[in-house]
Amino acid sequence: MAKFNLSRVPTIELRGELERRSARFDAMEAKRSALLEELEQVESELGELEAAAGAATGKRHRRTRAASHRRHGSAAAATRATNKLTLAQALQGALEGKTMSVGELVEAVQRAGYKSNSSNLRMMVNLTLLKRKDLFKRVGRGKYTAR
């Protein structure tokens, strides 16, 4: 198979392709943000419904553990982890005067004592950073700082 030689492609075509890919990336990133926000809303509504069902019957909703098994593929924790600070507050403290990646933030809040039963804390950190634009500023791809 012959190798493709980019030196034969006109610069204008290369620039056009880069612009097209950049626009597609921006569009996909916007779509991802919208889907993450929608997912968080659905999770919130599910939590409210489960809490309402538990309050109405005086016990925890029976499907909670089974639904969690289906969603996460593992046993759900019986209780929610308790923290003195919310995840947003913990992230704000970790970012004070710094710029960090999502992975670094996950490690920082865990070192600071933030506890979570989430099977994917990284996703929760991502959602919080995207949702709380009033508290966090994206300064580069995957890099955030506190406002």
Question: How would you describe this protein?
Answer:
By secondary structure, the chain is mainly alpha-helical. It has helices spanning 11-57, 63-72, 87-95, 102-111, 121-131; strands at 99-101, 136-140, 143-146. β2 and β3 (143-146) form a beta hairpin. The radius of gyration is 21 Å and the shape is elongated. The relative contact order is 0.10.
Task: Record keyword descriptors for this entry.
5 helices, single chain, 59% helix, Arc Repressor Mutant, subunit A, three-stranded antiparallel β-sheet, 147 residues, mainly alpha, 2 domains
Brief sketch in words of this structure:
The protein has five helices and three strands, in the order αααβααββ.
Per-chain topology:
Layout: H1 11-57, H2 63-72, H3 87-95, E1 99-101, H4 102-111, H5 121-131, E2 136-140, E3 143-146
Antiparallel strand pairs: 1-3, 2-3
